[in-house]
Fold each of these.
Amino acid sequence: MDLSYAVMPFVAWLVAGVTKFLVNSIRARRFAFDLVGYGGLPSNHSAIVSGMAALIALREGIAHPAFGVALTLAFIVMLDASSLRRQVGRHAASINRLATGDPAHAALRERMGHTLAEIMAGIVVGGLVALGVHAVFG
């Protein structure tokens, strides 16, 4: 039984999450647990979906239908991360500004989407993790 496809998303998520925590902590010059979540470098979502697409390409080949499905899913997730989720973050920032002084308003999370650099970093992380998982599960 080939467990590489089950292991891949978890390892990509873990590596991207730890990397994001380290990058945020270095930038903030403190342990930045509060900055872990949506947004930031690298994109966890991009790492997971691009890593799975890369693993399928390595193990099954790019002509396999599963690669096409994984690539399509990766594009959808990355487009969503760079456009829709960034807009949601901008809307949250506007709502937070409008609600300044309202004690009943719980501040909305403004950091939601990803920049192109954060998505590209996620793709790199996903590809490297796919190579590692492929090497381990050979």
Amino acid sequence: MSDSCRTRPTPAAWLDGMTNQTSLRDRALAFHALHVPGRPLVLPNAWDTASARVVEDAGAAAVATTSAGLAWALGAADGERVERERALGVVADIVAAVGVPVSADIESGYAEDPAGVAATVRAVLAVGAVGVNIEDALYGEGAGPLRAVAAQAERIAAAREAADAEGVPLFVNARIDTFLRGAGDVDVTLERAAAFRAAGADGIFVPGAVDPGTVKLLVDGIDGPLNVMVGPGAPPVADLAALGVARVSAGSGIAQAALALVHRAARELLGAGTYESLEGGLDYARLNELLGAAR
């Protein structure tokens, strides 16, 4: 792996005037530069073109997809149940619609083996995304909730090598589900993180870890930027920043909240016959303007 692909650039004016005509390499460098411990990149995850445009309009410096929200929008359950081509078709639409860097949640790689993960990464780059999340959870195969460390490291290495071969410093965010699945403590997480970093991961994502003491142990023990997933009950972004977190994301939380509103509004309309749940909706003309301005 070349040093130029692994060195984090200075967060200068990479994002000034960013357009879809900017080279993929420059967009990837811009995305890397946003990961600053103590000044985290905040990602309200999107799942389709409309949500991505709304998130960008709200001021997000980048757009990251949520695989769960994307799957639900396509009428499927989360957990490796959407085909790679279908999922990346949505990512392609999002990339075309926004002017900021896009990172794709590719679950565990949409593939059974490292070669397949490499093919997924090449497809991600082909649609213009410059980051990926790769998780270590197992879905319906093998024993235990997580892949063996060595097997997952091979998948991450394959992703890294595929991106480097294309000359793009893709940001590989290695997700570790020890806390989310009750499959390990801080020590186990740090062990996996070290192996995944050595395999080529740029950042480490540990969903389910929000306790300040735990987060601090992870920040101090991981040689690289830490991504924390937030939701109700999690510390504010400012508190996570003070702990040294470099990336904060909402995961499927915003998609869940949006669908909860659909459910509440539908029940109210069908039951009481009233419409109070619809208060505070985005303006029709504004939404038309946002989607009409999609790049």
